Amino acid sequence: MRIAVVGTGHVGLPTAVSLAHLGHVVVACDSDSEKVAELAAGRTPFYEEGLDDLLQAELGAGRLRFTTELAGAVAGAVVAFICVGTPPRASGAANLLALERVAEQIAKAATNDLVVVGKSTVPTGTAERLAETLARHGNGAAFTVVSSPEFLREGRAVEDSLSPSRIVIGSDSPGGFAVMREVYAPLIDAGVAYIETDIRTAELAKHACNAFLSLKISYANALARICELSGADVVAVADIMGSDPRIGRAHLDAGLGYGGYCFPKDLAAFSRLVGELGYAMPLLDEVARLNDEAVEACVAKVRDALWNLEDKRIALLGLSFKPGTDDVRFSPALALAARLLAEGARVVGYDPKAMAAATAEVGALQTAPDLYAALEGAHCAVVATDWPEFKDLDLAKAKELMAFPIVVDGRNAFDPAAMAEAGFTYYPTGRPVVKPGFRRA
Ligand code: UGA
To answer: Which residues have a Cβ under 8 Å from the Cβ of 279 and sit 6 or more positions away?
Structure first.
């Protein structure tokens, strides 16, 4: 099937590549000509495990092509996926201008009847606006709008695109459902859960999922504060909670809180939408407040460890919003860096992938070429993102390099007993602080 994908960001690119992998002929378009040139040469503009290989394979197989010309991508296509960004406005509402502009261009470029699929996270009711815009600007072609919210995670985009937890298709047209079943036939045949529903439900379900996952994280972070006050261990509490299948262990890791380009903005947009619908759900605002509190709790630990922060050197381990990506948008690590810098500390960051993006965002942040260089002379190390390689840290070497052997672990990356045995003063999250010589009973 001929498919157009508009937008080649963190959702659009994995979508285009995986649709090509499923056997479709895909033309992906983006207005950024430099990005298109890089993609056409087989280079991804951001780090995503396995995406380069798949991109190169699909380019080589001739099933995937990139262009800056939306009209060229849409002409002759049976389906057009819209994967453009929906950034937050100052009010928190999603800015849907890019969506409207793309719909207008698609309407003008369509040479035949077209199924237009919205993949961007949008307030419920957006598909109707899309349909209206397509009809206003079209010149004879019939448009069927489908909402198919994306559930892929950054860092696992390839895996989530090719083996998704579920595919959700919202439509009010039997024809729309039929075409989408063809698009996803290989995944449906492979047994992937496939849910057909109405458009508004599909749109709302995406916000409901992201808000609920954010809620789980903030709940875990509130528990962390309570555990710190009571002497309990939040990791063990989360394990016990997670062993109940009605709760589930996922997204119950207490830490610095959630970041990235999805949860913070989707929560704000959902809260705004709820208000516009005439309902109030202060729970959503509380989730966001608890998330901000998680960073503050970490700053308080650094202060507790170092007293005054002026001129103290702090090694910040991990800068991306989570491991497995170079994305620093709404990264809690950078929020923490900004807070520490504001208190006069010298912050030296290290991240396996996100150093360039992080310094572009926080100019005063220094970086070190490797983990040990970051630790050299540090009065304290703070784990902000739990990259797996941090677990392999040579603790004896780290202690030797640091000015003071103090670690504030914002992601519970280390074993408290091992830290104490290695001679560190160790501040985990939601677990008792341990001092050198401590041995677990
Ligand atoms: C999230 C959702 O998980 C995807 O299903 C969704 O498609 C995507 O948003 C989106 O709307 O596009 P993503 O932002 O890639 O995906 O990352 P997650 O793995 O969900 O993590 C989000 C944030 O929560 C990260 O900062 C992570 O460190 C944090 N987190 C996650 C915790 O603090 N604790 C946890 O237990 C889990």
So the answer is: none
Distance, CA of 437 to CA of 416 (rounded, Å): 11
Global pTM value: 0.95
Catalytic residue among 29, 83, 227, 262: 262
Burial 285-299 (b: 16+ CB within 10 A, else e): eebbebbebbbebbb
Distance between CA 426 and CA 423 in Å, rounded?
Answer: 9
Q: How far apart are CA 154 and CA 49, in angstroms?
A: 9
- In the numeric block, which tokens belong to residue 419? 């830290």
Q: What is the 3-class SS of 311-340, one letter each residue?
A: CCEEEEECCCCCCCECCCCCCHHHHHHHHH
Q: Is the CB of 138 under 6 A from ligand 1?
A: no
How confident is the prediction along the chain (441 residues), in pLDDT tens digits per residue?
999 999 999 999 999 999 999 999 999 999 999 999 999 999 999 999 999 999 999 999 999 999 999 999 999 999 999 999 999 999 988 899 999 999 999 999 999 999 999 998 999 999 999 999 999 999 889 999 999 999 999 999 999 999 999 999 999 999 999 999 999 999 999 999 999 999 999 999 999 999 999 999 999 999 999 999 999 999 999 999 999 999 999 999 999 999 999 999 999 999 999 999 999 999 999 999 999 999 999 999 999 999 999 999 999 999 999 999 999 999 999 999 999 999 999 999 999 999 999 999 999 999 999 999 999 999 999 999 999 999 999 999 999 999 999 999 999 999 999 999 999 999 999 999 998 754 544
- How far apart CA 354 and CA 326 sit, in angstroms, is 4
Question: Could you tell me if the CB of 386 is within 6 A of ligand 1?
Answer: no
Query: What is the phi/psi pair of residue 143, to 5°?
Result: -115, 135
Please tell me the residue having the least CA distance from ligand 1 atom 16: 153
Cβ–ligand 1 distance for 124 under 6 Å, the answer: no
Asked if residue 322 has its Cβ within 6 Å of ligand 1, the reply is: yes
Q: Which atom of ligand 1 lies closest to the CA of 386?
A: 28
